[in-house]
Amino acid sequence: MIRALIVDDERLARAELRRLLQTFPQVEVVGEAAHALAALTEIRKLAPDLLFLDIEMPGGSGFDLLEQLDAVPRVIFTTAYDQHALRAFEVNALDYLLKPIDPQRLARALDRLPVTPTEEAAPPDRLFVRDGERCWFLSLDEIPFFESEGNYARVCVSGPQPLLPRSLNHLEAQLDPRRFFRASRQHLVNLDWVSGVEPGPSGRLVLTLETGREIEMSRRQSQKFRERMSP
Amino acid sequence: MRSRGTLYWVCQLAGWGLYAAVNFLAYASTSRHPLRALALVLGFTGLGLLLTHLLRMRVGRRWRALRLRSLAPRVLVASVLCSAVVSLAGGLLARAVGEPSYGWAAQFVYFFNWSVIFFGWQLLYFGVHFLQRSRRAELEALHLEATANSAQLRQLQSQLNPHFLFNCLNALRGLIGEDPARAQDAVTQLANLLRYALADEGRTVPLSRELEVVQDYLALEALRLEERLKVRLEVSPECLAAPVPPMLVQTLVENAIKHGVARLPEGGELALSARRREGLLEIDVQNPRPAALGPSGGRIGLGNARERLRLLFGPLASIELDLNEPERATARVRIPWA
Fold first, then answer.
1. CA of B225: which chain A residue's CA is closest?
2. Quick one: pLDDT band at residue B225, thresholds 50, 70, 90?
């Protein structure tokens, strides 16, 4: 069973989508939200597998909403005519449905989803990021580390390095601590990317990542790291 | 063409006729041989007529197209050449009829006079053509401008926002199951709106006609926005007949919803008012807006409307967007209204 949340500012649009979804027994609509803020609350409360997401909404677009999420569910965008917004997505070939929604296209979009989330391995945690006009999903696997930039966190991947609209502290609290380690005030490192650890100056450790990048840990975090690594 | 040829001959014969008459009178009063004078005058006049006509036949059409800088030297040379021909032929003629007063000095004066006459003739001929051509060019420019304006107007006019259109169709699809009677009304309203937006309604329509369509448009927006959209109309009855460009008020109302009411989760009130003031029709569309303006700032739709007003009514018409109040926006249109 796919647990879906419908996010659209128009009641009739939500009702119509709900009605269309009645013919798909594998989908259960667990809730609705009329704007981005309400959707954020519902997503945290209901943890849906799938979002039907309108792009243009009052008080923040669908993209603004996704950017706030630390683990983004599957998303099918629903839009009336946002060619501009959709162009940003061409590279990723994301799923979107044009309103009024064609039931056959809806069926195809649902077919592309994993049949049930439990049947496969849990979908990889992913983030939604934006860089200028472009936006895309990033799996946490792909991210060697995050770097703090004031109240923002820079996603340090190869290629464009987008900013997330939240602090490194927030990310550290939300992400799996077995995987992401706070190396210093500046850096949150994905341990899967660490290829070597060397002792550095004054008792600090220096992490070498598979990208070749070296990250110096703070003294306190070096200590913590040693404790964690000791058998 | 025929009328222009006729005009040429009328001018030509009248001009040379006048020349002949004046000269004959002058000669006849001083000469004791009126017949001789008549022969001389007719001979000279005939020569002048012949030469100027030859000028028109041989070079007139080609020279008409020249710029002044190239034309002037040609005209001077032609004047001198024609004058030389007349002076020579005139000398022979004078001798033939036995006119004694035709010495070398007189010959030179005649040569000079004839140069002036031929120069004057060409001045008149090319001057008339120049005037005719510049008037024609002016007319063509005016016509071009008018064509461009109407094409531009058409292009600026029919612009229902596709985002609205498809959202509206989507809402309709939902409504069909929920409230068929209302869905039927909505289809009619949408048809009215589309017909108005797509058809050529002329350059202006009475405000009452525009408001009918705006009401349909608002009813459709209300389908989508439901209780979030409230509308207040304050149109003084005398304004209903005022001429406005079609889709102008609709554009303002659509902007007010797109950048104002629809952006607010709780919606708000759209106020539309129209009144007459100092020979102008004044239309206000007021809406609540998010405190922070989006990147477009709500100005894009108005650029087109502004251009349309300028093309239709000239500089007296105006559109302003007043954003002085922190949470309201007012679009104000002024249209000259005699």
1. A10
2. very high
Ranges of H-type helices in B179-286: 180-198, 207-225, 248-259
pLDDT tens for residues A204-216?
999 999 999 999 9
For the stretch B236-260, pLDDT in tens is 999 999 999 888 899 899 989 988 9
DSSP single-letter state for residue B67: -
Q: CA–CA separation, A49 vs A3, rounded Å?
A: 5
Question: What CA–CA distance (Å, rounded) separates A87 from A85?
Answer: 5
Q: Which token pair is B162?
A: 């596709």
3-state helix, strand, coil in chain A (%, to 5): 30, 30, 40
ipTM above 0.90 for this complex: no
Sort out which chain B residues have CB atoms less than 8 A from A132's CB and list them: none
How far is residue B280's CA from residue B336's CA, in Å, rounded to a whole number?
A: 5
C-beta separation of A179 from A192 below 8 A: yes
Q: Which residue of B has its CA nearest to A37?
A: B265
C-beta separation of B246 from B205 below 8 A: yes
Q: Indicate the SS3 state at residue A25.
A: coil
Q: What is the number of other CB atoms lying within 10 angstroms of the CB of residue A72?
A: 20
Structure tokens at B195: 């017909």
Q: How far apart are CA A16 and CA B173, in angstroms?
A: 7
* Of the partner residues A9, A12, A99, the one whose CB lies closest to the CB of residue B223: A12
Residue A143 burial (CB < 10 Å; 0-12/13-18/19+)? buried
Closest residue, chain B, to A54 (C-alpha): B167
In A, minimum Cα distance to B258 occurs at A58
- Chain B within 8 Å of A37 (Cβ-Cβ)? yes
Q: What residue has token string 């945690």? A: A125
Of the candidates B217, B306, B228, the one whose C-alpha atom is nearest the C-alpha of residue B253 is B217
Cross-chain residue pair B166–A58, CB shorter than 8 Å: no
B223 to A58: CB separation less than 8 angstroms, yes or no: no
> Which of B170, B176, B227, B229 to probe by mutation at the A interface, max A CB count within 10 Å?
B170
Report how far residue B326's alpha carbon sits from residue B319's, in angstroms, rounded to the nearest whole number: 20
- What gap in Å lies between CA B276 and CA B274, rounded to an integer? 7
| Contact indicator for B110, B41 with CB cutoff of 8 Å | no
What is d(CA A145, CA B135) in angstroms, rounded to the nearest whole number?
Answer: 76
Q: What is the pLDDT of residue A184?
A: 94
Q: Which residue blocks in chain B are alpha helix, DSSP H?
A: 2-30, 34-55, 61-64, 68-97, 104-157, 162-178, 180-198, 207-225, 248-259, 300-313
Question: What distance in Å separates the CA atoms of residue B53 and residue B12, rounded to the nearest whole number?
Answer: 9
Interface of B with A in 255-294 (CB under 8 A): 262-265, 290
CA distances from B41 to B28, B90, B101, B114, B205 (A): 10, 10, 14, 13, 70
Q: Which of B55, B35, B40 is nearest to B117 (CA)?
A: B55
